[in-house]
Amino acid sequence: MAPSRLLLAAPRGYCAGVDRAVETVERALEVADGEPVYVRKEIVHNRHVVDELARRGAIFVSSEDDVPPGATVVFSAHGVAPAVHTNAAARGLRVIDATCPLVTKVHSEARHFAGRGYTIILIGHEGHEEVEGTFGEAPEHMHVIASAEEVERLEVSDPERVAYLTQTTLAIDETAAVVEALRQRFPGLKGPASSDICYATQNRQDAVRQLASDCDAVFVVGSKNSSNSRRLVEVAERAGRPAALIEDGGDIEPEMLIECDRVGLTAGASAPESLVQEVVGALDGLGGVTVSERTVAREDVHFKLPVEVRPER
Length: 313
Known about the structure:
The chain is α/β, with parallel strands linked by helices. The protein contains 9 helices and 12 strands. Helix 4 (101-115) runs parallel beside helix 5 and helix 7 (199-212) runs parallel beside helix 8. The longest helix has 16 residues, at 16-31.
């Protein structure tokens, strides 16, 4: 059951928004001078990352209401609704906002369209924290859908004033099908000036699609609540390859390796490279594998840290 070749997708793992969010918590702990640092929800959707930050002292809570008045709280990379900012201010919390700038872009677009009287169709997964935050920008103007089949059931006040936005971590192909269905029903449909699906999501999907064409099975390192990681599994499966989402090397199912000579490996945008290397070691331990990398794009995007935790220069 030992594969002879392991193909690594590139790019993989941390994106700029995740890197910024994790570093924000690390820096907040450094400058807190012993004071507690709270984090609302998971800073990013990866259990190992959250557990490591908790070991360093971060206190994860489900709501800003769980943070003592006047304490420091970090908002996650997924963004929050305006009501959360209002509540935090009323409680006197010291807020450090680690929202990914690409999510902030979607929030701005929601305010833009709502202010002009458009009904907004948000393509995304209801209940996901990013969707909840974006929906909170204009709840009276917004509908959330996840599939093309839901388009016909939409009820809007003015079919001539409809716009769409998307969750940043969706599968590109599926999102395009939903947008096309919206355009068929609402020919005057407006959309964002540039795609809401983030560069890292697109790059990782392109990489795993190419990887899948040259291997027998694909493993995606990521947590089950990571939307972009689950989409990578789906992309590999649509390319005709069996795929599995794994947290770490201990999750490898031996059955997946039966008659697999070449195995592909990638990681969602919230999975650190250390977990990828753990999986590489686990597969190599089965009998030795030759490791190579397939690169489809180079990434050099960096986002500034929130001003509250930027190193002094």
